[in-house]
């Protein structure tokens, strides 16, 4: 770091354009210390010999469905083992029935509620001309017409055509949005497309590292990383910055469309617990019917 | 309080801001645990009159405030499984695994049997929701039970496995509830 500092002073005196680059290297080195701190913590996890076992029993679930079990993995390929522990997932959230109808309704809603149709046609009053009666009503042996812009005429107005700025906004009932999330999470988990990681800390900030990692673990091309916090670790942010098929998302942005869009969904342990807490709260809240009756808030 | 404010205002009117500062001594922002966030506010320069400098932090009566919060979920009555409460509500006693099927209680701890009524065509349907496990086993047992009880020739019922529901044509809410209570759900 001291070497980089002296080099930076020598270079920036002559070429101010390099200043930004140097500063960037500073910030990276500064953060790398944190990341190495995280790596040290990960190493301590390896060295503590006892794997991370989060085997909650969920006695409140009161369901025939047993808690789902999943491996906890690590994004650090230098670790001794890919799997660092085991986690139990709440059966009401990750073991729900895969309601395909609700998943479809959610996807359709997400496509439609933001859609605005710009197609536009003119009615007979908006087409230019057509004010004069083209020929007298009687006496010519021709059909009676009052305007050359009538919808019957070529070049006339359009009846019941599309009119611009037609919004397709509507709100899906709250319970359906809720069940859509559990159905999608459960379907992804049942298809082995949902992975749990300890954290999103990685030892490298290169895109190739992330691509190689996902390829080695058969995660497919598109991967969605979800963390509890919306301030992501710097290395995975840099690595996924140029990869448009690997995306980061906080828990509050989780949605059905994105989960289906990506082949694999990677959740951190904190994200799993936060998702369970939020969804179970909404399932059990006493004013859920009131929430369903509410149309939407602008 | 209002008298103090009035005097401050008159002070400001008479001799301006300098006199006001003299009247109210400038002191550091109060930093008790409850007021830590006050430093994040955009205007960080607060003046607290000396008469109100002493603030006591007490959490003794906080549970009275907690009582006012809306409930996050409906609390489950603390009674033994199978016990009948004076209101007629029965605590569920069946455990997962007792039967090939399992009927969860609703979030309000009631038996999830509902009557759907379409008035203008006088159509009644009875629904059992939250049926986990073998829906069809429950359907057959329910069919036998209802036929014994109601002596109906035709029982129009179906199981909807993906939705975890059973639908019966007609009004059978009381009978289905009795059936489920017998099974301990």
From TrEMBL, chain A:
Q: Where in the cell is it found?
A: Mitochondrion
Q: What is its main location?
A: mitochondrion
Could you name the Gene Ontology cellular component terms for this entry? Answer: mitochondrial inner membrane; ribonucleoprotein complex; ribosome
GO BP: translation
State the residue spans of region: Disordered: 127-146
Q: Which PANTHER family match?
A: 50S RIBOSOMAL PROTEIN L4, LARGE RIBOSOMAL SUBUNIT PROTEIN UL4M
Against NCBIfam families, the record matches this protein to: rplD_bact (TIGR03953)
Protein name as annotated: Large ribosomal subunit protein uL4m
Automatic annotation (TrEMBL), chain B:
Name where it mostly resides.
mitochondrion
Q: Where in the cell is it found?
A: Mitochondrion
What does UniProt give as the signal peptide span?
A: 1-16
Q: Which UniProt keywords apply?
A: Mitochondrion, Ribonucleoprotein, Ribosomal protein, Signal
Xref: Pfam families: Img2
InterPro entries (alphabetical): Ribosomal_mL49
Give the GO terms filed under biological process for this record. Answer: translation
Gene3D superfamilies with a match to the protein in the record: SUI1-like domain
Molecular function terms in GO for this entry?
structural constituent of ribosome
Its cellular-component GO annotations read: mitochondrial large ribosomal subunit
- Family the UniProt entry places it in: Belongs to the mitochondrion-specific ribosomal protein mL49 family.
UniProt cross-references to PANTHER family, sorted A to Z:
LARGE RIBOSOMAL SUBUNIT PROTEIN ML49, MITOCHONDRIAL 39S RIBOSOMAL PROTEIN L49
Q: What's the protein here called?
A: Large ribosomal subunit protein mL49
Which species?
Scylla paramamosain (Mud crab)
